[in-house]
Amino acid sequence: MNTFEEQMQTFWMEVQEIYNNIDRRNYTYYMFQTDYRENPDLMIVGINPGGETNGNPNPILEHCEDYNNYTDGDSLWCSRIRELFDFGNDEYLSNILRNCVGTNRCYINTPNKDILEEIYKSNSEKIFDSIHSNKLIPFKNKAGELLFTLIDIIKPKHILTLGNDVFSHLVGAKHVNTIGSCEMKIGYPKCGNSKIPVGYIPNPSGINNKYFSATKMKEWPKTITEFMNL
Q1: Which of 48, 63, 71, 211 is at a distance of 20 to 30 A from 34, taking alpha carbons?
Q2: How far apart are CA 174 and CA 189, in angstroms?
Q3: What gap in Å lies between CA 191 and CA 151, rounded to an integer?
Q4: CA triplet 129, 132, 136: central angle to 5 degrees?
Q5: What is the 3-class SS of 23-90, one letter each residue?
Q6: Among 196, 213, 212, 192, which residue's Cα sits nearest to residue 204?
Q7: Phi and psi, residue 211, nearest 5°
Q8: Do β-strands 198-201 and 184-187 pair in parallel, antiparallel, or remain unpaired?
């Protein structure tokens, strides 16, 4: 059986093969918001990375042990994620966030502000439709399967999705319940390991301020703790 590192490298080559067939309009792409590791307590999945680009992907997937965008990033949504986990105050949740694996449904990244504005005004389905042309439908479908493959390799104990698009992509419409005072939606993957709890947090960007009032922010760490104990 291939080792974890061998599986990750094979997966990274597959990612490049798929996305290199897409007209990316100055897009580049990367997979992770953190270092990657096997069997973390938590995997966080967003829609797409956005922001500054580091250039074309390296054919060799490398570890970045000191990199964690959630704990160190200076954007609004990174700051908000730290609040959700009561980072720096709640020792349990802080360690969960420090050691999580963060990735995205789409691996698209661009420094082009016009394209970013287009992305942020769209949902992830529209992003997929815009970056995968009709003649590349097989690649669109294959790209949509990548997340399930990555989950099977990483083997997280829990998954938190940032936004309903990703949650629906992973869980589908069946077997969705809620937990905690924030009424977090939870479900289980519709493909692969169906025993991993999947939770939903509204996309922590500025457009969703109503979900992150001062009152709600006091309750989110409690709800996330309850989720992590499933």
Answers
A1: 211
A2: 10
A3: 10
A4: 125
A5: CCCCCEECCECECCCCCCCCEEEECCCCCCCCCCCCCCCCCCCCCEHHHHCCCHHHHHHHHHCCCCCC
A6: 212
A7: -85, -5
A8: antiparallel
| DSSP secondary structure string for all residues of 165-213 | HHHHHHH-SSS-EEETTTTEEEE--SSS-TTS-EEEE---SGGGGGGS-
List, in order of start, the domains of the chain with CATH numbers: 4-228 (3.40.470.10)
Contacts of 108 (CB under 8 A, 6+ apart): 24, 27, 29, 48, 49, 50, 119, 127, 131
Rounded to two decimals, the pTM is: 0.84
Residues 175-184: pLDDT tens digits?
A: 689 999 999 9
Task: Give 104 or 139, the one with higher predicted confidence.
Answer: 104
Residues in the chain: 230
- Report how far residue 201's alpha carbon sits from residue 223's, in angstroms, rounded to the nearest whole number: 10
Q: Could you tell me the two tokens for 1?
A: 């059986």
Contact (CB, 8 A) for 166 and 150? no
Residue 135 confidence (pLDDT): 43
Rounded (5°) CA angle 80-84-86? 110
Q: Is 121 helix (H, G, I), strand (E, B) or coil?
A: coil
